[in-house]
Amino acid sequence: MFERVLIANRGEIACRVIRTCRRLGIHTVAVYSEADRDARHVRLADEAWPIGGPRPADSYLRGDAILEVARKAGAQAIHPGYGFLSENTGFARACVEAGVVFIGPRPESIDAMGSKAAAKALMEKHAVPLVPGYHGENQDPAFLAEQARKTGFPLMIKAAAGGGGKGMRIVRGEGEFADALASAQREAANAFGDTRVILERYVEHPRHIEFQVFGDTHGNVIHLNERECSSQRRYQKVLEETPSPFLTPARRQAMGEAAVAAARAVDYVGAGTVEFIVGTDGEFFFMEMNTRLQVEHPVTEETLGLDLVEWQLRVAAGQPLPLKQEQIQAHGHAIEVRLYAEDPEQNFLPGSGKLVRLRLPAPSKHVRIDGGVVEGDTVTIFYDPMIAKLVVRDTERPKALERLREALAQCEIVGPKSNIAFLERLARHPSVVEGTIDTGYLDRHLDEFLEGDAAPADRVLFAAATAALLQEERSVSASAADPHSPWASADAWRIGHAGKRVVALSLHEQRYEVTAHGQGGDYRLEHGEATCEVHGARLEPDALSARFDGEAQRLGARVDDTRVLLHDAAGRRYRFVRAPAFAWASTESAGGNQVVAPMPGRIVLVKAKPGDNVEEGQELLVMEAMKMELALKAPRAGTIESVSATQGEFVEADAVLVRFEG
């Protein structure tokens, strides 16, 4: 086994690899960019070395700098994690030439599967089922348009060198093809430095089911069962689970055998994933092979009781696979979701900023947290905004889903916006509960998973106000010099009349006022014409219990001087901001006379110029931020007065990019 391993990555996966290495007694060497000098993986590693600027191209994609650190630190092997250089053939070869073990497949295997087009040609030779389409070398736009007509619509354009949902577009008609092709090629060039694409017949309502495979240098190749990843938004996985609720034992065996055949076709060594599209009738087609460890590998580990990073290390050190195919025995059901700094209500706009509060459930036999940040860290604009992976397991799927709902209810992120409420709705949605979701369902029915700005029910307001009142009374009593003094009670008592307090709460920038009489957990509450008698209210660290108009309820609740986080009886999350009782200032929007950058990023396309007459919703610019393209559209119809952005320019958040006349 290796004595010193360099981890050529950052964030959650770097921390994950460090954890296994530490258990095995392996000395870990981390690398970091300027933006990550205080990052968690830097603090966890035995030693850490700087490798360049904050942009990935200046640091984590610099194979030469990483190999130089490996030489200086005496690392015998490099673990690439996922992303960055994990599937870079040139880097894998450079490691071999430098005498450093690349903890991954052989460069030739990466080459074979790194191009979707070449991979499909190879799979065709080995009788692995393929979706009809075009995966040749001719990339002339007119030729591709002709191949698209032959394939038929709807079809999928995919970046030939891609993965992770980048450079993918669904085209439903011939008239959409040219624009979709240009957009996919542009995104592919930014993400992979390669504009080549392939075309595939789009399978309607498909499921995405992948198989974990492992090979060693002794000729052994096995699979470690499947993961269902059909809960996707814009080709990005949102929820992963195993076993799949769709597969029968016969389908699982057939797909497992096809996955092993795909791995053997490239003489595969190490951890890999063979991904399939599965139709509603159960027919499956090879989609691609990821020649690395996957983000969702923990669900496989949790059902098999294995450490796949340890397997990677042992295989890379020349050891045979620890188990044979017949020894792979799964137990229970596991589900993973990814907590992101993003705003689902704003088209999942990635966020950045300091994690003022990061509260996650405590790890247990049912809950696992794989994270790359802690409270006080900053989510930067330069990398993927994932905060943590939340993994749950139990003996069967319904119980695992309930574990997931319970764990999500304990999560809280203050600072950048997060997708927690979105994931809570996902975990309760019938398509997930019943196991019927397909890869396009979220995009077709996204409104079903979003919070929206509807006013909360009066009962929710009364519960939130009760929690705020109890916290206020507790704070005043705790801060009083004499706890027995009448002034140590926050009951709004006045000479000559009963006490009255106003609890002001804000939700979605809308102010709500609740009038309260009483104290100590017994209140009469009023909001407009609605009233509620509250008795026996008690506030615990994570819950509020009370009788509301005689009905006893226990609700998830956390409250402080600035906010009230509440889950209603149906499990819906509400995050109220506490506002001054007798002060309120409204804010005016900037109006529709300008387009501003929603976050820092690079302008990749300018589609408007001064004097243009545009329609509301017309795309004016495209910017790249946090590994994704954002289309910036006209807020109204009108004439453009000025355009302040140029292609290739890096702009800061809130920079005015386009101004309208009038």
Automatic annotation (TrEMBL):
Residue ranges constituting the Biotin carboxylation domain according to the UniProt record: 1-447
SUPFAM superfamilies: Glutathione synthetase ATP-binding domain-like, PreATP-grasp domain, Rudiment single hybrid motif, Single hybrid motif
SMART domains per record: Biotin_carb_C
Names of required cofactors: biotin
Domain Lipoyl-binding: 585-661
Keyword set, alphabetical order: ATP-binding, Biotin, Ligase, Nucleotide-binding
Protein name, UniProt field: Acetyl/propionyl/methylcrotonyl-CoA carboxylase subunit alpha
Keyword hit for Nucleotide-binding: yes
Domain ATP-grasp: 120-317
UniProt keyword annotation of ATP-binding present: yes
